[in-house]
Amino acid sequence: MKTILLKHLAQLNSGFTIRESIDYLEYGEVKAVQIKDLSKQSHQIDTDLLTGIEWRYDSKPQYLSHNAILLTSRGELAAYLFKGDIEDKVVASNSFIIINIIEETVLPEFMVWYLNNAIAAKNYFSSASRGSSLPITTVGVVKELPVAVPTLAQQKEIIQRHLLAQREKQYLEQLVQLRHEYNNALAEQLLMKN
């Protein structure tokens, strides 16, 4: 298995800088991804949950392309996969580092898993990030991330196992919730008997 620096596997840049508060519109021409828009349970960006904005900047918007990865640059690191395409007109704020995989030997889903879960990535970022109360990660730091690149078959297996574990976790959480509701209902019945 080869270890390759991320800068040789992907193009990286930061999201656009918001210089003022964003005016959200029900049907804006452009959708902006901000950290508050992302789910803690899923590492995939749902464009239906994003709110439209009016683009009031001189520069042309840099729309996210299919399979773009957004890595949070402030606070706890988390990577998200954008499954939409340029026609969706979605931009990322400067709270993100945008990663576009250019090597066919790396699956974007694997890279999201690697950034979120691999111990080597966690150790690298904890030693390289700046700031103590709110760590900041720069594009330069992310470019130098060493990535262990398994075969495509191994990447697919890692992704499948991860998805299975996520589903199992959801089922267990639902089971705990149902058990809690059952116990509360039973307790209420016992209270009514007395």
Order of helices and strands: EEEEEEEEEEHHHEH
Helix content: 25-40%
Number of domains: 2
Q: How are strands sequenced across the largest beta sheet?
A: 2-10-7-8-5
Write out the CATH superfamily name of the largest domain: DNA methylase specificity domains
Q: How would you sum up the global shape?
A: globular
Describe this structure in words.
With 194 residues, this protein is an alpha+beta fold. It has four helices and eleven strands. The protein has helices at 108-117, 119-128, 139-143, 152-193; strands at 2-5, 10-14, 24-25, 30-33, 44-45, 52-53, 68-72, 79-82, 90-92, 96-101, 146-149. Strand 7 (68-72) and strand 8 (79-82) form a beta hairpin. The longest helix has 42 residues, at 152-193.
